[in-house]
Design brief:
Blueprint: H1 2-55, H2 66-78, H3 82-85, H4 91-109, H5 123-135, H6 141-150, H7 157-165, H8 174-183, E1 188-197, E2 203-211, E3 217-223, H9 228-238, E4 247-250, H10 258-266, E5 270-273, H11 283-295, H12 305-321, E6 348-353, E7 358-363
Parallel strand pairs: 1-4, 4-5
Antiparallel strand pairs: 1-2, 2-3, 6-7
Helix pairs in contact: 2-4, 6-7, 9-10
């Protein structure tokens, strides 16, 4: 009996050792969890005490100070259950505090940042480059750089090229058309009609051809019924003896048909039609029409065709010889002579023009 018991105890020893290892492991886990729960309990207690301190202040509304915001930012960083203990503000507020702190931190780091590389191009120089590009569309970076160097600007060619690419482009063809008119004005003429109401014969049509170089009226005529054949005949009378210009500008009037264009080409003139509803492209002719109306036709009553011809003839003479023009640097198309070194006490004589509507002044003989 005793031997059996000893044998039984010896068989039970290994089982006892296995239970002991499991118990030790369980005890170790319990210790770790107890310490972890103890840590969470301590942190929760600290968080609640901090909020009680804020609420206990004698203010109409509790305010969270800067150091208390830093406390909750640190708690958010090192404690996963911080939202459960937060009562005085929303969790999003703590997140906003955290972001604001990072913003202030990076602002503090960058307060003495030193820029590397080349100096930035100032606004005045950029605007000068843009202006040069707009006024000289055919210039490249080397040409613009040469002009800038004349003013003492120290800038690289690659920088000029970069700002040229960023320059605003004018998509309107107005500047190119104006440049064409200026460069070819000696070889350009324009033709147009304008209407004049009469007292007894309805509306009369006044046709004219004007040269661009000196604003000279090359030909004019008046009719009651304008046709393409009549306009073709007027062109033959306007350009006798190989005096035709290279280009003839006109609008989309129905009388300026293919027959008129063919007649102009036989005279050695290339007709150029303006765009639809673009009177600015035939500005010289439109300006003459406006001047004739303001200077003469708005102040008289036209009786008939013969009367209108005489009035326009007198106005063309005044327009050529007496009237100064802004586009001609305050000169006249016929080249009016200037009085040299006038005496202050000298007498100035007024000569009537257009029945007294206008006058021409010169020194008395």
């Amino acid at each position: 009996m005793w031997e059996r018991s000893v044998f039984h105890i010896q068989l039970r020893v290994p089982c006892y050792n296995g239970h002991m290892l499991r118990s030790l492991r369980l005890l170790l886990i319990l210790l770790i969890r107890s310490f972890s729960s103890r840590r969470n309990l301590l942190l929760e207690n600290l968080a609640l005490r901090q909020q009680l301190a804020v609420l206990a202040r004698k203010h109409p509304q509790p305010r969270v100070a800067v150091h208390e915001r830093i406390f909750w930012i640190v708690m958010r960083r090192f404690w996963s259950r911080w939202k459960q203990a937060l009562l005085i503000v929303q969790p999003e507020t703590v997140v906003r505090w955290h972001r604001a702190g990072f913003k202030l931190y990076w602002q503090w780091l960058s307060r003495k940042r030193v820029r590397a590389g080349r100096r930035p191009t100032n606004k005045e120089l950029r605007e000068l480059i843009f202006r040069t590009v707009a006024e000289n569309p055919t210039w490249g970076a080397p040409r613009i750089l040469g002009e800038l160097r004349m003013f003492g600007f120290d800038i690289a060619e690659r920088t000029v090229l970069r700002w040229i690419r960023k320059a605003p482009r004018n998509s309107e063809p107005a500047q190119r058309w104006a440049a064409f008119l200026t460069n070819h004005r000696e070889a350009i003429a324009a033709m147009d009609f304008f209407t004049v109401p009469t007292l007894a014969f309805g509306v009369l049509y006044c046709f004219f051809v004007i040269a661009h170089d000196r604003r000279r009226i090359l030909h004019f005529n008046v009719t009651r019924h304008p046709t393409s054949a009549w306009v073709a005949q007027q062109l033959c009378e306007a350009f006798p003896h190989d005096s035709a210009p290279r280009y003839l500008i006109h609008d989309h009037d129905a009388t300026f048909s293919a027959e008129v264009a063919a007649t102009a080409r036989t005279l050695g003139v290339e007709p150029v039609r303006t765009s639809f509803k673009s009177p600015w492209q035939n500005g010289v002719a439109e300006r003459f029409v406006g001047s004739c109306r303001r200077d003469l036709l708005d102040h008289v009553i036209v009786l008939n065709e013969r009367h209108l011809k005489r009035l326009v003839r007198d106005y063309v003479r005044y327009f050529h010889e007496d009237r100064t023009h802004l586009g001609l640097a305050k000169e006249t198309p016929a080249g009016r002579e200037k009085e040299l070194n006038p005496i202050v006490s000298c007498q100035v004589v007024a000569m009537s023009r257009l029945g007294g509507l206008h006058h021409r002044y010169q020194l008395a003989a």
